[in-house]
Amino acid sequence: MTKxxxxxxxxxxxxxxxxxxxxxxxxxxxxxxxxxxxxxxxxLEVVKKATPVTAGRMSLEVEANTTYRVNxxxxxxxxDCMDEAFWAHVSMQFIIGDxxxxxxxxxxWKLILHVANCGREFAHVVKLEIYNLRVDxxxxxxxxxxxxxxxxxxxxxxxxxxxxxxxxxxxxxNLAKRAAxxxxxxxxxxx
Length: 191
Hints:
Blueprint: H1 3-10, H2 15-22, H3 25-40, H4 61-64, E1 67-72, H5 78-81, E2 99-104, E3 109-118, E4 123-132, H6 137-142, E5 146-150, E6 157-161, E7 164-170, H7 173-190
Parallel strand pairs: 1-2
Antiparallel strand pairs: 2-3, 3-4, 5-6, 6-7
């Protein structure tokens, strides 16, 4: 090896020299075109498409999950039903995805829950819907001599006139109030 060739090897080559030394002219043209395309074209992201649903993933709702109606004492609030420990005694019956329709004995509200997770002594539930079933206060004012109250699981809802029980056994407070209104209208017609 001569001193000239050794000096050439130690010198850094220019970029153009490297391209022309290692690559043919056709390959160099492709590289230039590729560099132009890379700078001009925006980068395209590959969009992953969802696979279609197969028949094995479909079933009737009544076969896959269960809807439970849960009657709770009238002093239970909707917030109490959201506590995971509230469901400790019955959580073993649930599976994820079940629906719970919670209604107090007083029928003042209706709460629809979704079981998100459950185990031996807990159930995590998510509130889907809540309905206020209380009667409008203006209806109560019309029957001022009448009152309603809950008398337990046997007598259920009843209405009173001047503190005297007129009739009991109504399933909901609304039915007892409607009966009180009907009684008031009957008394007014008799006058």
